[in-house]
Amino acid sequence: QRDAKGQYLFDLLCHHLNLLEKDYFGIRFVDPDKQRHWLEFTKSVVKQMRAQPPFTMCFRVKFYPMDPAALKEEITRYLVFLQIKRDLYHGRLLCKTSDAALLAAYILQAEIGDYDPGKHPEGYSSKFQFFPKHSEKLERKIAEIHKSELSGQTPATSELNFLRKAQTLETYGVDPHPCKDVSGNAAFLAFTPFGFVVLQGNKRVHFIKWNEVTKMKFEGKTFYLYVSQKEEKKIVLTYFAPTPEACKHLWKCGIENQAFYKLEKSSQVRTVSSSNLFFKGSRFRYSGRVAKEVMESSAKIKREPPEIHRAGLVPSRSCPSITHGPRLSSVPRTRRRAVHISIMEGLESLRDSAHSTPVRSASHGDAFAAPGRGGRAESSERVAVIADENYSPADSVLPTPVAEHSLELMLLSRQANGAPCSIEEEKESEAGTPAAAEEAGGELRALCPGSLGAAQAEQVNKFVLSVLRLLLVTVGLLFVLLLLLIVLTESDLDTAFFRDIRQTPEFEQFHYQYFCPLRRWFACKVRAVVNLLIDT
Description:
Structural class: alpha+beta
């Protein structure tokens, strides 16, 4: 219905999925300006869409569990498993080759079972796409682990082991937001279960625990993070988002993540303002439960485990992960645009059978290279390989305008001196869906040089609106003060507050020396005007 709240739609979806531990999940959509949003449960769905139906929405993990293996129900672990598997494919969960091979082997074991020489010929792992780019060495390692180490594991056990391994990686739970620092260098900001991270180049330049973050605010495209560390050391981190809308989305994500992971009770949640002035900026309040409450509630769940419908991997280079039901390449495009939610699909979004070719990526030592985003989608598919050259984040494709269907930002993970790899994050791609195609292209559109004039005009308009807002508030305050003055001098109210003010020498002097003469002058002028009107 038109007035249905986001909570109604989310509850309906979770009921359909038979999901009780639902606080970790959310619904993501893209507005007509191609900016990503999380559906707010306290507001009308239709008003948030600001577009014409049918609406395309994506069911996603919004708050990654601190320990996904500790989730109470298997259905919840399975849905989180699908999300992290998707993160692995899209390059948000980066790792060295040995870890990548183990994760892929867990996926194989969970979805095709034990190795069977009769069903799985030589090179069978090369028919499946777990990552944006494969090498023959990586494929052989995946098959070797699957054959020798995982035999006998049930799907639930393999998924549990997958979650335990993924949770140890540095980029577990990262949903990257592309920004620039004060020097103009590209960076990715992200919120994880453990704190706020900034990834720049091929390394993490900041990791700030949630209890060290004292405040977050934004003004236009500028995002500020206030940090208080040991020995009363206070710093302010400043970053610039591509658009004001992207900056507001970043701010709201930060407010929600900090409330979810840091607070002890949802009753401690407060409304947060993006500005120090009450009449300026945005106000936002996280409306859900916090992590501690969710875990306590999960421990009380007592029911028969719901049935989970799993499906095997589709052996195709063009299909990056499980697609349940018919292959979408055979489904009319108009049907793909409809909202289609089922337990068989889990977290997988609707996607076309062809993917945009990654621009380039790199391997360094034993590192596993993640994808690039930015090449134009082509009708003929290309075999993705790991490039030999090193990718420099300073040469990121971020400022380059891209087509709606070419949405892979370049990422790299590498291993130095045998240590776990440092990481650069990418912007999430909602691959293949109409909303997804609009989403990533729109987030980069504001960086296009051709939009400079429009951006300047937008800044002028916002300045004028700020000045008008300031004038309006000033006039309002003066009007309130005038009303208070009239009440003090002309009314017969004898409350303690008014009586104390009237008895002060300053008020008496003001009343007799200034207010009474002004009142007589004003009354004289009013009588003169009235007499003039009567005479005419």
